[in-house]
Write a structure and sequence with these properties.
This is Integrase-like protein. It comes from Mycetohabitans endofungorum. GO terms for molecular function: nucleic acid binding. With about 120 residues, the protein is of the alpha+beta class. It has a single domain, classed as Nucleotidyltransferase, domain 5 (2-Layer Sandwich), CATH 3.30.420.10. Helices cover about 40% and strands about 25% of the residues. It contains four helices and five strands; from the N terminus they run E-E-E-H-E-H-H-E-H.
């Protein structure tokens, strides 16, 4: 799972992504102008609906790997993760390569955004 902020012509936005590391499928995402944990919570819930068809205790729990950011260690986020029966796994601080798969997806999204809007000189 990844949470990041981007700046563009219209200001900044936060993005949360949930990626299945086995299949490399993007399971859930949320884009918001809010920098709150609710953005990550929404992405997680979209991923659970995509995987399980509903919200609630997950029959086959999986690990959520993320960095040690405030969003992923917040009381609201950790409580929701526990309520679904999931387990959090944190990467070593300052080692983004441990979350390389989702970092690569973000890089690809940025590159495509820049290519798409290059003629308008917009930075994503």
């Amino acid at each position: 799972m990844e949470y990041s902020q981007e700046t563009g012509r219209d200001g900044w936005a936060t993005r949360a992504l949930v990626l299945d590391c086995r299949t490399r499928e993007l399971l859930g995402w949320h884009l918001s102008r809010s920098g709150k944990a609710s953005t990550a919570l929404s992405a997680l819930e979209h991923a659970l609906i995509a995987q399980c068809g509903t919200l609630g205790h997950v029959p086959a729990p999986f690990r959520l790997r993320s960095d040690n950011g405030l969003v992923f260690t917040s009381r609201d986020y950790t409580a929701l993760v526990r309520s679904y029966g999931l387990r959090q796994e944190f990467i070593t601080p300052h080692c983004p390569q441990q979350n390389g798969m989702v970092e690569r997806v973000i890089r690809m999204l940025k590159e495509q955004c820049v290519r798409r809007h290059a003629s308008r000189r917009i930075t994503c």
